[in-house]
C-alpha cells in the first residue's frame, strides 16, 4: 500500500474536518427544527384557562431573573418595545426554558402580550387554533385576529428589531387612548395580579 504524501494527508484532514463541521451543523439545525415543532404543538394545546397564569409567570420571571418590570397596566408602547428587544436576545429563551422544552418562553411571553392587549383595547381571547389561542380585537365593525403566543415564538426565531412592537401598536392604534383599561376585561391591574 502506498503511503500518503503531505499534501494528500492535509487534504484528507481538511475533508474530515469539513465533514465533521457539516455533520455538527446539520445536527444543530435538525435539533432546532424539532424544538420548533415541539413549541408549535405545545402552543396549539394551550387552553384559554391557562393564559392568565402564563401571563403572571412571565411577569414574575421578568422580575426575578431578568430584573425587568412587566405589568399589563404599564405603557403599552414601552412594554411592547421591551418585549420586542427581549425576544431578540437569548435572555427570554434562557430564563424561561427547560431542558425538555427549550422554547417554552413563547407561552408565558405570548400570554402576557395578549393580556396586555386585552387591558389596553377591546380584545378578548376567542378561540383556539393551530397557532394557539386567538386574540380577537374589535375595531368598530371589524375584528382583527392576533396569535400572540405564535407571534412571540416567530419573533424570537426570525424577527427583526421593532417588528413585534409595530405589530402590537398597529393592533391598538385605532383603539382606546393610552393607559386606559379595557372596560370589557372587567379587571383592574391589581385584580389581574390577584391583589384585590
Compile the SSE list and pairings:
Elements: H1 6-45, H2 51-66, H3 76-88, H4 91-95, H5 106-120, E1 123-129, E2 132-139, E3 142-146, H6 148-158, H7 163-172, H8 189-192
Antiparallel strand pairs: 1-2, 2-3
Helix pairs in contact: 2-5, 3-7, 5-6
Features:
196 residues; mainly alpha
What does this structure look like?
Helix 5 crosses helix 6. The protein has one domain (8-192). It has 196 residues and is mainly alpha-helical. It has eight helices and three strands; from the N terminus they run H-H-H-H-H-E-E-E-H-H-H.
Query: Using DSSP, what is the number of strands?
Result: 3
Domain count, please report it: 1
Structural class: mainly alpha
Strand order, main sheet: write it out: 1-2-3
Low-confidence stretches: 176-181
Mean pLDDT: 82
**Helix proportion range:** 55-70%
